[in-house]
Amino acid sequence: MQGGGQQVRSGAAATELVVDGVRRAILDGDMSPGQRLVEAELMDMFGVTRGSVRSAIEDLTADGLVEKIPNRGARVRRVSLDEAVAILECRGVLEGLIAARAAERVTSEQAERLERIGEQMQDAVRTAELRTYARLNSQLHELVAEIGAQQIASGLILKLRSQIVRHQFQLSQRPGRPQVSLGQHLAIIEGVNSRDPQRAEQAARRHVQSVIETLLEIRAEQQDASQETQRIAV
Asked: What is the pTM of this model?
């Protein structure tokens, strides 16, 4: 994405390029919560004008991914766990809608693709290939969204998912979580491939609810550990 030696781009397309690039960097963990967004660096990275970068920062701020601090510039926004839970509650409704639509629209060829991803996910968990499992997880959700063809809901989910990537990473490191997650994703596949919208929706919403419950468990454990440390120190 280096802009050196390339024609500098501007306008709406350039702004969208920066927005998409920063969002992807946040999702991939290349940009961390609290990290400053330096205009000159983004200009060079994407080969766009300063005006395009500033417009992109405005759009990212409106999406809740970036925050502007007076006299300190823009940075990737930190999202509290309570806010992450609220975001997930909204996302659960949207994920359920998409899964239900997918169950209504899925073709035989698409059903086979879902089955193959499910089998690959099982292999990845069996061999403890967590990075592969995470990649397949994303592929599954993208395919269900593609089948469901509910573009508004899919766009909203992408924005919401970008905001809580730090909490999702924390969740992925929890021992035993991939095994739990695997069963839930297989249930989504079964719901869609059974052409049963209600079953697919319930499976998708149960998965998101499980994510919420696990994040709350992690917080409770961290609070207990902190209290125990304070007690020992006293």
From this structure: 0.72
